[in-house]
Amino acid sequence: xxxxxxxxAPRNPASFGFTGRLYVEEGDSxxxxxxxxxxxxxxxxxxxxxxxxxxQSFTRAADGSRLKEIDDFYxxxxxxxxxxxxxxxxxxxxxxxxxxxxxxxxxFSRPGSVLTDTRAYSRSDDYWEEARMxxxxxxxxxxxxLMRQLRSVPLYYYSExxxxxxxxxxxxxxxxxxxxxxxxxxxxxxxxxEGFRLxxxxxTTANLSNRWFARGYAAYGFRDKKLKYGAEVExxxxxxxYHSREFPVHSLRFTxxxxxDQLGQHYLFTNQDNVFLxxxxxxxxxxxxxxxxxxxxxxxxxxxxxxxxxxxxQRQEESKYVKFMLPDGGSFSHYNEMVxxxxxRLVLGIRVRRCAGQGGTCMEPRAFPxxxxxxxxxxxxxxxxxxxxxxxxxxxxxxxxxxxxxxxxQRSAVQSHSSGEETKAPRGCGFxxxxxxxx
Length: 439
Prior knowledge:
- The protein is mainly beta and 439 residues long.
- The protein has helices at residues 125-131, 138-151, 154-168, and strands at residues 3-8, 19-25, 33-39, 49-60, 66-77, 86-93, 171-172, 179-181, 188-191, 195-204, 212-221, 226-236, 250-262, 287-300, 305-317, 324-325, 331-332, 334-346, 351-355, 360-364, 379-381, 387-392, 399-407, 410-415, 422-424, 432-434.
- The strands form six sheets. Strands 7, 8, 9, 10, 11, 12, 13, 14, 15 and 18 form a ten-stranded antiparallel β-sheet that branches. Strands 1-2-3-4-5-6 form a six-stranded antiparallel β-sheet, with no helix packed on it.
């Protein structure tokens, strides 16, 4: 039937509001909204946004409920006014609503807000063409042809390849790739103990096996003239799309490695031989050699609760910069230790994305307002007066001590330490501490 247009606009066109139109059926006493069209006012001060439009269509269910059919979101952006901008469009279609009890009674009790059928990633193009609820426009169909034309230009083709490697961190060896070489940011680096360091490694992908995975590397330092290595075998109880670190992780992993150990500087979200970490203002001589065998079980759940059980045998070996001394003046070249750990972790409000740089899943906790520190990462003081993160270093399962102060949840001047100088606590701490690498 005929629709009646109802227009609306904010009283102040410069305020945060929408201008738009509602469409309702003529003569409908319930004023059922069939269609909605909204725009931001032209005079609004919205950073980088030149135009924003939202269009939604609705249908009426048998019981009178309003059901969304189409949600169309369109936005135009300009980083710098007067320059070439860009636009983005997202169209979502809804259908096949059912209010009958589901066949699987436990579907609404499963953890997580989004449940994805594992078969969705293995469907063919023909299936999606048939199941598509909205036809693809002629302009959208020409995008593939446009990309093929662009990739026929050598400059664009190799620039795209180089950018993918820099962002993704790995070089694929086929299509589909069964083995990826990387991470590329560790191919060469340097430190005080090893001097110039070369490394080569890689990992298998789900194209080889979607449950069994392997990673490994070999590295050589030209100053200490020692070969280091790392090897890892992992079995995933979940089928993976591409790599073993995809969220959620449920796996059993065994790792064997021999490498340098930077005391007090164990990085959680990057490799210790990242080339950019070689750029330092002063030398770091607090380094030993670590030989480790580690068995680890990890269970991550969709409700952001994770469990980690680990056991490792570690052999710490002295270096020319760090010697192991006894109280009576004697010395020894190494010591052994067994480490067992259990970790329970619950992070609310976390966002999960695929982290190509590490070939794994990256967690993005929400941060404290005005800081870069994630929420629910508690800090504690050890008896020596050093500030320690309650999260372990990811390698030894020990606390990581840093310089800083934590009073009533407020943090300041938190940074890694590598020198043995005495420093005073930041304002509010009220006590000095010795900054060192003793863990």
